[in-house]
Amino acid sequence: MLTSDRMRIVMAASEAVPFSKTGGLADVSTALAKALDALGHDVTIIIPDYRELRLKQQEKLPTVADTGMRFSLSMNGRYVNGGVNWTMLPDTSVKVLMISQPYYFDRPQLYMEAGEGYRDSCERYCFFSRAVLEVCQQMVLRPDIIHCNDWQTGLIPALLHAHHARRPGFENAASVMTLHNMAYQGRFWHLDMHLTAMEWRYFNMRQMEMFGDLNLLKTGIAFADQVTTVSPTYAKEICSPEGGEGLDSLLTYRNGDLVGILNGIDDTVWDPSADPHLPAHYSTAAIKPGKAECKAALQKRVGLPDRPNVPLFGMVSRMSDQKGLDLLADCADRLLFHDIQMVFLGTGDPHFENFLQHLAEHNPGKVAAVIGFDDGLAHQIEAGVDSFLMPSRFEPCGLNQMYSLRYGTLPVVRLVGGLADSVVDVNPATIQDNTATGFVFEEYSSTALAEAVERAVEVYRQPDVWHQLMINGMSIDWSWHTSAMRYADVYRQALERRHDRANDGRE
Protein backbone atom coordinates (compact mmCIF):
# COMPACT_ATOMS: atom_id res chain seq x y z
CA MET A 1 0.00 0.00 0.00
CA LEU A 2 0.96 3.62 -0.38
CA THR A 3 2.81 5.31 2.44
CA SER A 4 1.86 8.81 1.26
CA ASP A 5 -0.90 10.56 -0.65
CA ARG A 6 1.23 10.90 -3.78
CA MET A 7 0.42 8.17 -6.30
CA ARG A 8 2.22 6.94 -9.39
CA ILE A 9 -0.51 6.81 -12.03
CA VAL A 10 -0.27 5.33 -15.52
CA MET A 11 -3.07 6.52 -17.81
CA ALA A 12 -3.53 4.05 -20.69
CA ALA A 13 -5.69 5.23 -23.59
CA SER A 14 -5.98 4.80 -27.34
CA GLU A 15 -5.91 8.57 -27.93
CA ALA A 16 -4.98 11.80 -26.18
CA VAL A 17 -4.84 15.43 -27.30
CA PRO A 18 -2.92 17.01 -28.85
CA PHE A 19 -1.39 13.85 -30.36
CA SER A 20 -4.48 11.95 -31.53
CA LYS A 21 -8.21 12.44 -31.32
CA THR A 22 -11.52 11.13 -32.63
CA GLY A 23 -13.74 12.15 -29.71
CA GLY A 24 -14.07 13.13 -26.07
CA LEU A 25 -11.83 10.30 -24.82
CA ALA A 26 -8.79 12.18 -26.10
CA ASP A 27 -9.79 15.35 -24.26
CA VAL A 28 -10.52 13.47 -21.04
CA SER A 29 -7.27 11.49 -21.07
CA THR A 30 -5.15 14.61 -21.25
CA ALA A 31 -7.24 16.92 -19.08
CA LEU A 32 -7.52 14.40 -16.23
CA ALA A 33 -3.78 13.71 -16.39
CA LYS A 34 -3.07 17.45 -16.13
CA ALA A 35 -5.47 17.85 -13.20
CA LEU A 36 -3.95 14.89 -11.33
CA ASP A 37 -0.50 16.36 -11.97
CA ALA A 38 -1.68 19.64 -10.47
CA LEU A 39 -2.78 17.71 -7.36
CA GLY A 40 0.78 16.47 -6.95
CA HIS A 41 0.57 12.96 -8.39
CA ASP A 42 3.17 11.38 -10.68
CA VAL A 43 1.32 10.84 -13.96
CA THR A 44 2.38 9.04 -17.15
CA ILE A 45 0.15 8.76 -20.21
CA ILE A 46 0.73 5.77 -22.51
CA ILE A 47 -0.83 5.89 -25.98
CA PRO A 48 -0.12 4.35 -29.40
CA ASP A 49 2.18 6.37 -31.62
CA TYR A 50 0.07 7.07 -34.71
CA ARG A 51 3.18 8.35 -36.41
CA GLU A 52 1.63 9.17 -39.80
CA LEU A 53 -1.00 11.36 -38.16
CA ARG A 54 1.45 12.86 -35.68
CA LEU A 55 3.90 13.98 -38.36
CA LYS A 56 1.13 15.85 -40.19
CA GLN A 57 0.79 18.19 -37.21
CA GLN A 58 4.29 17.99 -35.73
CA GLU A 59 4.75 21.78 -35.87
CA LYS A 60 1.92 22.13 -33.34
CA LEU A 61 3.15 19.34 -31.03
CA PRO A 62 5.86 19.18 -28.38
CA THR A 63 9.08 17.54 -29.55
CA VAL A 64 8.92 13.73 -29.55
CA ALA A 65 12.10 11.69 -28.97
CA ASP A 66 13.03 8.01 -28.99
CA THR A 67 13.58 6.47 -25.54
CA GLY A 68 15.74 3.74 -27.05
CA MET A 69 13.62 1.04 -25.41
CA ARG A 70 12.77 -2.00 -27.56
CA PHE A 71 10.59 -5.00 -26.83
CA SER A 72 9.10 -7.98 -28.63
CA LEU A 73 5.76 -9.73 -28.15
CA SER A 74 4.44 -12.96 -29.64
CA MET A 75 1.39 -12.01 -31.70
CA ASN A 76 -0.58 -14.24 -34.04
CA GLY A 77 2.20 -16.80 -34.42
CA ARG A 78 5.06 -14.35 -34.90
CA TYR A 79 7.16 -11.97 -32.84
CA VAL A 80 6.28 -8.31 -33.25
CA ASN A 81 8.82 -5.67 -32.26
CA GLY A 82 7.92 -2.39 -30.66
CA GLY A 83 9.59 0.77 -29.45
CA VAL A 84 8.75 3.71 -27.23
CA ASN A 85 8.89 7.42 -28.03
CA TRP A 86 8.33 10.07 -25.42
CA THR A 87 7.54 13.71 -24.73
CA MET A 88 6.01 15.88 -22.02
CA LEU A 89 2.66 17.62 -21.88
CA PRO A 90 3.46 21.34 -22.09
CA ASP A 91 3.48 23.24 -18.79
CA THR A 92 3.12 20.04 -16.74
CA SER A 93 5.20 17.22 -15.28
CA VAL A 94 3.12 14.65 -17.20
CA LYS A 95 5.21 12.22 -19.25
CA VAL A 96 3.74 10.88 -22.50
CA LEU A 97 5.02 7.51 -23.72
CA MET A 98 4.05 6.45 -27.24
CA ILE A 99 4.07 2.80 -28.25
CA SER A 100 5.70 2.65 -31.67
CA GLN A 101 4.80 -0.20 -34.01
CA PRO A 102 4.57 0.90 -37.67
CA TYR A 103 2.51 -2.03 -38.98
CA TYR A 104 -0.23 -1.51 -36.37
CA PHE A 105 -0.27 2.24 -35.90
CA ASP A 106 1.20 4.05 -38.94
CA ARG A 107 -2.14 4.38 -40.72
CA PRO A 108 -4.23 7.22 -42.16
CA GLN A 109 -6.80 7.03 -39.33
CA LEU A 110 -6.98 5.68 -35.79
CA TYR A 111 -9.70 3.06 -36.05
CA MET A 112 -11.15 2.94 -39.55
CA GLU A 113 -10.94 4.04 -43.16
CA ALA A 114 -13.77 4.76 -45.62
CA GLY A 115 -16.32 3.94 -42.92
CA GLU A 116 -14.91 0.46 -42.29
CA GLY A 117 -13.12 -0.53 -39.09
CA TYR A 118 -9.64 -2.01 -39.47
CA ARG A 119 -9.92 -5.80 -39.66
CA ASP A 120 -7.04 -6.36 -37.24
CA SER A 121 -8.36 -4.05 -34.51
CA CYS A 122 -8.30 -6.82 -31.92
CA GLU A 123 -4.66 -7.62 -32.69
CA ARG A 124 -3.62 -3.95 -32.69
CA TYR A 125 -5.05 -3.17 -29.27
CA CYS A 126 -4.15 -6.49 -27.67
CA PHE A 127 -0.59 -5.63 -28.69
CA PHE A 128 -0.99 -2.14 -27.24
CA SER A 129 -2.43 -3.41 -23.93
CA ARG A 130 0.33 -5.97 -23.52
CA ALA A 131 2.91 -3.34 -24.47
CA VAL A 132 1.66 -1.00 -21.72
CA LEU A 133 2.59 -3.54 -19.06
CA GLU A 134 5.87 -4.36 -20.79
CA VAL A 135 6.79 -0.66 -20.77
CA CYS A 136 5.79 -0.27 -17.12
CA GLN A 137 8.15 -3.11 -16.23
CA GLN A 138 11.11 -2.27 -18.43
CA MET A 139 11.02 1.46 -17.66
CA VAL A 140 10.52 0.78 -13.94
CA LEU A 141 7.44 2.97 -13.68
CA ARG A 142 6.23 0.99 -10.61
CA PRO A 143 2.63 2.19 -10.98
CA ASP A 144 0.26 2.32 -8.04
CA ILE A 145 -2.64 2.76 -10.45
CA ILE A 146 -3.09 1.76 -14.07
CA HIS A 147 -6.10 3.69 -15.30
CA CYS A 148 -7.58 2.05 -18.40
CA ASN A 149 -10.03 3.68 -20.80
CA ASP A 150 -12.57 1.92 -23.02
CA TRP A 151 -12.27 -1.41 -24.80
CA GLN A 152 -8.90 -0.71 -26.40
CA THR A 153 -7.31 -1.07 -22.95
CA GLY A 154 -9.77 -3.55 -21.45
CA LEU A 155 -7.23 -6.38 -21.57
CA ILE A 156 -4.85 -4.61 -19.16
CA PRO A 157 -6.75 -5.33 -15.89
CA ALA A 158 -6.96 -9.01 -16.88
CA LEU A 159 -3.25 -9.26 -17.63
CA LEU A 160 -2.42 -7.44 -14.41
CA HIS A 161 -4.55 -9.89 -12.45
CA ALA A 162 -3.49 -13.10 -14.20
CA HIS A 163 0.17 -12.49 -15.09
CA HIS A 164 1.72 -9.39 -13.59
CA ALA A 165 0.37 -9.07 -10.05
CA ARG A 166 3.40 -10.76 -8.47
CA ARG A 167 6.04 -9.46 -10.88
CA PRO A 168 8.59 -6.89 -9.74
CA GLY A 169 7.24 -3.39 -10.19
CA PHE A 170 3.58 -4.39 -9.88
CA GLU A 171 3.45 -5.39 -6.21
CA ASN A 172 1.11 -2.51 -5.33
CA ALA A 173 -0.50 -1.91 -8.72
CA ALA A 174 -4.29 -1.70 -8.91
CA SER A 175 -6.43 -1.18 -11.98
CA VAL A 176 -9.26 1.23 -12.70
CA MET A 177 -11.45 0.81 -15.79
CA THR A 178 -13.35 3.83 -17.15
CA LEU A 179 -16.32 3.28 -19.47
CA HIS A 180 -16.71 6.23 -21.80
CA ASN A 181 -19.37 4.76 -24.10
CA MET A 182 -20.98 1.33 -23.70
CA ALA A 183 -21.91 1.24 -27.38
CA TYR A 184 -18.29 0.41 -28.28
CA GLN A 185 -17.18 -2.83 -26.65
CA GLY A 186 -14.45 -4.42 -28.74
CA ARG A 187 -16.28 -7.65 -29.62
CA PHE A 188 -14.29 -10.06 -31.77
CA TRP A 189 -14.21 -13.64 -33.04
CA HIS A 190 -13.58 -16.08 -30.19
CA LEU A 191 -10.44 -17.44 -31.87
CA ASP A 192 -8.82 -14.03 -31.33
CA MET A 193 -8.49 -15.15 -27.72
CA HIS A 194 -4.92 -16.29 -28.46
CA LEU A 195 -3.96 -12.65 -29.11
CA THR A 196 -4.68 -11.76 -25.49
CA ALA A 197 -2.03 -14.06 -23.93
CA MET A 198 -4.74 -15.09 -21.44
CA GLU A 199 -5.52 -18.76 -20.75
CA TRP A 200 -8.66 -20.16 -22.32
CA ARG A 201 -10.14 -20.83 -18.87
CA TYR A 202 -10.86 -17.11 -18.66
CA PHE A 203 -13.05 -17.31 -21.78
CA ASN A 204 -16.26 -17.75 -19.83
CA MET A 205 -19.50 -15.83 -19.38
CA ARG A 206 -18.31 -14.16 -16.16
CA GLN A 207 -15.08 -12.73 -17.54
CA MET A 208 -14.16 -12.49 -21.24
CA GLU A 209 -16.88 -14.19 -23.30
CA MET A 210 -20.13 -12.68 -24.57
CA PHE A 211 -22.48 -14.68 -26.77
CA GLY A 212 -19.58 -16.72 -28.08
CA ASP A 213 -17.38 -13.70 -28.82
CA LEU A 214 -14.36 -12.23 -27.10
CA ASN A 215 -15.44 -8.95 -25.48
CA LEU A 216 -12.59 -6.68 -24.38
CA LEU A 217 -14.75 -4.11 -22.60
CA LYS A 218 -16.38 -6.87 -20.58
CA THR A 219 -12.90 -8.15 -19.79
CA GLY A 220 -11.90 -4.82 -18.31
CA ILE A 221 -15.10 -4.56 -16.25
CA ALA A 222 -14.70 -8.09 -14.92
CA PHE A 223 -11.07 -7.78 -13.81
CA ALA A 224 -10.61 -4.13 -12.79
CA ASP A 225 -10.33 -3.31 -9.10
CA GLN A 226 -12.63 -0.32 -9.58
CA VAL A 227 -14.92 0.66 -12.46
CA THR A 228 -15.89 4.23 -13.27
CA THR A 229 -18.00 5.91 -15.87
CA VAL A 230 -18.33 9.49 -16.94
CA SER A 231 -21.43 10.72 -15.12
CA PRO A 232 -23.58 9.64 -12.16
CA THR A 233 -26.71 9.29 -14.30
CA TYR A 234 -24.91 7.15 -16.87
CA ALA A 235 -23.69 4.90 -14.03
CA LYS A 236 -27.34 4.16 -13.25
CA GLU A 237 -28.39 3.84 -16.89
CA ILE A 238 -25.77 1.20 -17.75
CA CYS A 239 -27.03 -1.07 -14.97
CA SER A 240 -30.33 -1.39 -16.86
CA PRO A 241 -31.09 -3.49 -19.95
CA GLU A 242 -31.81 -0.28 -21.89
CA GLY A 243 -28.41 1.28 -21.18
CA GLY A 244 -26.12 -1.65 -20.47
CA GLU A 245 -25.75 -2.85 -24.06
CA GLY A 246 -25.84 -6.47 -22.91
CA LEU A 247 -23.45 -5.96 -19.97
CA ASP A 248 -26.02 -4.71 -17.44
CA SER A 249 -25.92 -7.96 -15.41
CA LEU A 250 -22.16 -7.75 -14.95
CA LEU A 251 -22.36 -4.05 -14.13
CA THR A 252 -25.13 -4.68 -11.61
CA TYR A 253 -22.95 -7.38 -10.04
CA ARG A 254 -20.08 -4.89 -9.82
CA ASN A 255 -22.31 -2.02 -8.75
CA GLY A 256 -20.51 -1.68 -5.42
CA ASP A 257 -17.31 -0.91 -7.31
CA LEU A 258 -18.93 1.30 -9.99
CA VAL A 259 -18.67 5.08 -9.60
CA GLY A 260 -20.02 7.78 -11.91
CA ILE A 261 -17.80 10.87 -12.05
CA LEU A 262 -18.85 13.74 -14.27
CA ASN A 263 -16.07 14.80 -16.61
CA GLY A 264 -14.68 18.28 -16.36
CA ILE A 265 -13.33 20.49 -19.11
CA ASP A 266 -9.92 21.98 -19.63
CA ASP A 267 -10.71 25.55 -18.66
CA THR A 268 -7.34 26.76 -19.89
CA VAL A 269 -8.39 25.72 -23.43
CA TRP A 270 -12.08 26.57 -23.16
CA ASP A 271 -12.05 30.10 -21.76
CA PRO A 272 -14.02 32.88 -23.49
CA SER A 273 -11.93 35.54 -21.74
CA ALA A 274 -8.71 34.35 -23.40
CA ASP A 275 -9.60 31.94 -26.24
CA PRO A 276 -7.20 32.67 -29.15
CA HIS A 277 -9.75 31.40 -31.68
CA LEU A 278 -12.25 34.16 -30.88
CA PRO A 279 -12.44 37.62 -32.48
CA ALA A 280 -13.47 39.11 -29.13
CA HIS A 281 -13.23 38.04 -25.50
CA TYR A 282 -15.79 38.32 -22.74
CA SER A 283 -16.61 37.22 -19.18
CA THR A 284 -19.54 37.39 -16.77
CA ALA A 285 -18.57 40.99 -16.00
CA ALA A 286 -19.38 42.01 -19.59
CA ILE A 287 -20.94 39.35 -21.80
CA LYS A 288 -22.98 41.18 -24.41
CA PRO A 289 -20.41 43.16 -26.44
CA GLY A 290 -17.93 40.29 -26.86
CA LYS A 291 -20.55 37.66 -27.55
CA ALA A 292 -22.29 39.91 -30.07
CA GLU A 293 -19.00 40.39 -31.93
CA CYS A 294 -18.40 36.62 -31.89
CA LYS A 295 -21.88 36.03 -33.28
CA ALA A 296 -21.40 38.50 -36.12
CA ALA A 297 -17.99 37.02 -36.99
CA LEU A 298 -19.43 33.50 -37.01
CA GLN A 299 -22.33 34.50 -39.25
CA LYS A 300 -19.88 36.06 -41.67
CA ARG A 301 -17.55 33.06 -41.66
CA VAL A 302 -20.27 30.49 -42.42
CA GLY A 303 -22.16 32.71 -44.88
CA LEU A 304 -25.23 33.62 -42.85
CA PRO A 305 -26.71 37.14 -42.84
CA ASP A 306 -25.62 39.39 -39.99
CA ARG A 307 -28.79 39.38 -37.91
CA PRO A 308 -27.92 40.14 -34.28
CA ASN A 309 -31.48 39.81 -32.94
CA VAL A 310 -32.30 36.43 -34.47
CA PRO A 311 -31.55 33.38 -32.27
CA LEU A 312 -28.66 31.38 -33.70
CA PHE A 313 -28.55 27.66 -32.86
CA GLY A 314 -25.42 25.56 -33.31
CA MET A 315 -24.28 21.95 -33.26
CA VAL A 316 -20.75 20.49 -33.28
CA SER A 317 -21.03 16.74 -33.34
CA ARG A 318 -20.35 13.38 -34.80
CA MET A 319 -23.28 13.02 -37.19
CA SER A 320 -25.10 9.90 -36.09
CA ASP A 321 -28.35 8.58 -34.65
CA GLN A 322 -26.77 8.64 -31.17
CA LYS A 323 -26.51 12.42 -31.40
CA GLY A 324 -30.17 12.89 -32.31
CA LEU A 325 -29.69 13.84 -35.96
CA ASP A 326 -32.70 11.70 -36.84
CA LEU A 327 -34.88 13.85 -34.59
CA LEU A 328 -33.51 17.00 -36.17
CA ALA A 329 -34.25 15.66 -39.65
CA ASP A 330 -37.84 14.93 -38.66
CA CYS A 331 -38.57 18.40 -37.24
CA ALA A 332 -36.34 20.64 -39.41
CA ASP A 333 -39.25 22.12 -41.34
CA ARG A 334 -41.10 22.96 -38.12
CA LEU A 335 -38.00 24.62 -36.63
CA LEU A 336 -37.24 26.65 -39.74
CA PHE A 337 -40.81 27.95 -39.81
CA HIS A 338 -39.56 30.21 -37.00
CA ASP A 339 -37.25 33.16 -37.58
CA ILE A 340 -34.02 31.45 -36.52
CA GLN A 341 -30.59 30.55 -37.89
CA MET A 342 -28.67 27.29 -37.53
CA VAL A 343 -25.03 26.26 -38.05
CA PHE A 344 -23.65 22.71 -38.06
CA LEU A 345 -20.10 21.34 -37.92
CA GLY A 346 -19.04 17.70 -38.00
CA THR A 347 -18.70 14.46 -39.91
CA GLY A 348 -20.24 11.03 -39.65
CA ASP A 349 -23.01 9.07 -41.30
CA PRO A 350 -23.14 10.07 -45.00
CA HIS A 351 -26.94 10.10 -44.77
CA PHE A 352 -26.86 12.88 -42.17
CA GLU A 353 -24.02 14.74 -43.87
CA ASN A 354 -26.11 14.83 -47.06
CA PHE A 355 -29.22 15.86 -45.12
CA LEU A 356 -27.47 18.87 -43.55
CA GLN A 357 -25.88 19.92 -46.82
CA HIS A 358 -29.31 19.69 -48.49
CA LEU A 359 -30.88 21.68 -45.64
CA ALA A 360 -28.28 24.43 -46.02
CA GLU A 361 -28.63 24.57 -49.81
CA HIS A 362 -32.40 24.97 -49.57
CA ASN A 363 -32.30 27.49 -46.71
CA PRO A 364 -29.29 29.68 -47.59
CA GLY A 365 -30.17 32.56 -45.27
CA LYS A 366 -31.03 30.37 -42.32
CA VAL A 367 -28.78 27.27 -42.29
CA ALA A 368 -25.04 26.71 -42.72
CA ALA A 369 -23.37 23.28 -42.67
CA VAL A 370 -19.62 22.61 -42.59
CA ILE A 371 -18.80 18.94 -43.18
CA GLY A 372 -15.44 18.17 -41.60
CA PHE A 373 -13.76 19.23 -38.40
CA ASP A 374 -12.09 22.52 -37.60
CA ASP A 375 -11.07 23.08 -33.98
CA GLY A 376 -11.00 26.86 -34.35
CA LEU A 377 -14.48 26.91 -35.87
CA ALA A 378 -15.73 24.65 -33.06
CA HIS A 379 -14.62 27.28 -30.53
CA GLN A 380 -16.18 30.05 -32.63
CA ILE A 381 -19.50 28.20 -32.77
CA GLU A 382 -19.54 27.74 -28.98
CA ALA A 383 -18.96 31.47 -28.54
CA GLY A 384 -21.03 32.78 -31.45
CA VAL A 385 -24.28 30.87 -31.19
CA ASP A 386 -27.01 31.70 -28.71
CA SER A 387 -28.05 28.11 -28.09
CA PHE A 388 -26.37 24.71 -28.62
CA LEU A 389 -28.24 21.57 -29.72
CA MET A 390 -27.55 18.19 -28.05
CA PRO A 391 -30.70 16.07 -28.55
CA SER A 392 -28.82 12.82 -27.88
CA ARG A 393 -30.35 9.37 -27.86
CA PHE A 394 -27.78 8.60 -25.15
CA GLU A 395 -24.86 10.66 -23.90
CA PRO A 396 -22.53 9.10 -21.30
CA CYS A 397 -21.20 12.50 -20.29
CA GLY A 398 -20.94 15.00 -23.10
CA LEU A 399 -18.51 17.90 -23.11
CA ASN A 400 -20.09 20.36 -25.51
CA GLN A 401 -22.87 21.28 -23.10
CA MET A 402 -20.17 22.28 -20.58
CA TYR A 403 -18.23 24.20 -23.22
CA SER A 404 -21.49 25.95 -24.11
CA LEU A 405 -22.30 26.93 -20.55
CA ARG A 406 -18.76 28.21 -20.06
CA TYR A 407 -19.23 30.39 -23.15
CA GLY A 408 -22.64 31.79 -22.16
CA THR A 409 -24.44 29.60 -24.70
CA LEU A 410 -27.65 27.92 -23.54
CA PRO A 411 -27.86 24.19 -24.38
CA VAL A 412 -30.94 22.35 -25.61
CA VAL A 413 -30.45 18.80 -24.31
CA ARG A 414 -32.22 15.54 -23.70
CA LEU A 415 -32.50 14.27 -20.11
CA VAL A 416 -29.91 11.48 -20.37
CA GLY A 417 -26.46 10.67 -18.96
CA GLY A 418 -24.18 13.60 -18.28
CA LEU A 419 -26.63 16.02 -19.92
CA ALA A 420 -29.06 15.32 -17.08
CA ASP A 421 -26.28 15.92 -14.55
CA SER A 422 -25.04 19.23 -15.97
CA VAL A 423 -27.99 21.22 -17.39
CA VAL A 424 -30.86 22.61 -15.28
CA ASP A 425 -34.11 23.16 -17.17
CA VAL A 426 -35.53 26.65 -17.57
CA ASN A 427 -38.83 26.96 -15.73
CA PRO A 428 -40.39 29.60 -13.44
CA ALA A 429 -38.88 28.08 -10.27
CA THR A 430 -35.34 27.72 -11.63
CA ILE A 431 -35.45 31.18 -13.19
CA GLN A 432 -36.48 32.56 -9.80
CA ASP A 433 -33.63 30.89 -7.89
CA ASN A 434 -31.02 31.50 -10.64
CA THR A 435 -30.22 27.81 -11.19
CA ALA A 436 -31.63 27.49 -14.74
CA THR A 437 -29.01 26.96 -17.44
CA GLY A 438 -30.72 25.42 -20.48
CA PHE A 439 -33.69 23.69 -22.09
CA VAL A 440 -34.22 20.04 -21.23
CA PHE A 441 -36.62 17.52 -22.77
CA GLU A 442 -37.15 13.88 -21.84
CA GLU A 443 -38.95 11.92 -24.56
CA TYR A 444 -36.83 10.87 -27.51
CA SER A 445 -39.04 12.36 -30.20
CA SER A 446 -38.84 15.10 -32.79
CA THR A 447 -41.88 16.76 -31.20
CA ALA A 448 -40.17 17.01 -27.81
CA LEU A 449 -37.03 18.46 -29.44
CA ALA A 450 -39.05 21.00 -31.42
CA GLU A 451 -40.94 22.10 -28.32
CA ALA A 452 -37.67 22.59 -26.41
CA VAL A 453 -36.25 24.73 -29.24
CA GLU A 454 -39.47 26.74 -29.36
CA ARG A 455 -39.20 27.37 -25.62
CA ALA A 456 -35.67 28.65 -26.22
CA VAL A 457 -36.91 30.97 -28.96
CA GLU A 458 -39.60 32.31 -26.64
CA VAL A 459 -37.17 32.97 -23.77
CA TYR A 460 -34.69 34.57 -26.20
CA ARG A 461 -37.28 37.32 -26.71
CA GLN A 462 -36.83 38.19 -23.01
CA PRO A 463 -33.29 39.61 -23.08
CA ASP A 464 -33.00 40.24 -19.33
CA VAL A 465 -33.96 36.64 -18.52
CA TRP A 466 -31.66 35.30 -21.25
CA HIS A 467 -28.75 37.38 -19.92
CA GLN A 468 -29.23 35.98 -16.40
CA LEU A 469 -29.32 32.43 -17.79
CA MET A 470 -25.98 33.08 -19.50
CA ILE A 471 -24.50 34.29 -16.21
CA ASN A 472 -25.86 31.22 -14.40
CA GLY A 473 -24.05 28.84 -16.77
CA MET A 474 -20.82 30.82 -16.93
CA SER A 475 -20.62 31.00 -13.13
CA ILE A 476 -20.38 27.22 -12.66
CA ASP A 477 -16.93 25.70 -12.13
CA TRP A 478 -16.55 23.09 -14.90
CA SER A 479 -12.81 22.56 -14.33
CA TRP A 480 -11.27 19.15 -13.78
CA HIS A 481 -10.10 19.93 -10.24
CA THR A 482 -13.14 18.50 -8.42
CA SER A 483 -13.42 15.50 -10.75
CA ALA A 484 -9.70 14.75 -10.35
CA MET A 485 -10.06 14.67 -6.57
CA ARG A 486 -12.90 12.17 -6.94
CA TYR A 487 -10.73 10.01 -9.20
CA ALA A 488 -7.98 10.13 -6.59
CA ASP A 489 -10.49 8.78 -4.06
CA VAL A 490 -11.42 5.97 -6.47
CA TYR A 491 -7.71 5.15 -6.91
CA ARG A 492 -7.34 4.79 -3.14
CA GLN A 493 -10.36 2.50 -3.04
CA ALA A 494 -8.82 0.41 -5.83
CA LEU A 495 -5.57 0.13 -3.87
CA GLU A 496 -7.45 -0.98 -0.78
CA ARG A 497 -9.33 -3.59 -2.79
CA ARG A 498 -6.10 -4.87 -4.33
CA HIS A 499 -4.43 -4.96 -0.90
CA ASP A 500 -7.35 -6.91 0.62
CA ARG A 501 -7.36 -9.37 -2.29
CA ALA A 502 -3.63 -10.01 -1.95
CA ASN A 503 -3.89 -10.51 1.82
CA ASP A 504 -6.70 -13.07 1.64
CA GLY A 505 -4.91 -15.12 -1.00
CA ARG A 506 -7.08 -14.39 -4.03
CA GLU A 507 -3.98 -13.56 -6.09
From TrEMBL:
One of its GO terms (biological process) is glycogen biosynthetic process. Residues 8-252 form the Starch synthase catalytic domain. Residues 308-458 form the Glycosyl transferase family domain. It comes from the Bacteria. Keywords: Glycogen biosynthesis, Glycosyltransferase, Transferase. One of its GO terms (cellular component) is cytosol. Its EC number is 2.4.1.21. It is an enzyme of class 2 (transferase). InterPro entries: Glyco_trans_1 (IPR001296), GS/SS (IPR011835), Starch_synth_cat_dom (IPR013534). It comes from Fuerstiella marisgermanici. The lineage of its organism: Bacteria, Pseudomonadati, Planctomycetota, Planctomycetia, Planctomycetales. CDD domains: GT5_Glycogen_synthase_DULL1-like (cd03791). Signal peptide: none annotated. It catalyses: [(1->4)-alpha-D-glucosyl](n) + ADP-alpha-D-glucose = [(1->4)-alpha-D-glucosyl](n+1) + ADP + H(+). This is Glycogen synthase. PANTHER family: ALPHA AMYLASE DOMAIN-CONTAINING PROTEIN (PTHR45825:SF11), GRANULE-BOUND STARCH SYNTHASE 1, CHLOROPLASTIC/AMYLOPLASTIC (PTHR45825). Pathway: Glycan biosynthesis; glycogen biosynthesis. GO terms for molecular function: alpha-1,4-glucan glucosyltransferase (ADP-glucose donor) activity; alpha-1,4-glucan glucosyltransferase (UDP-glucose donor) activity.
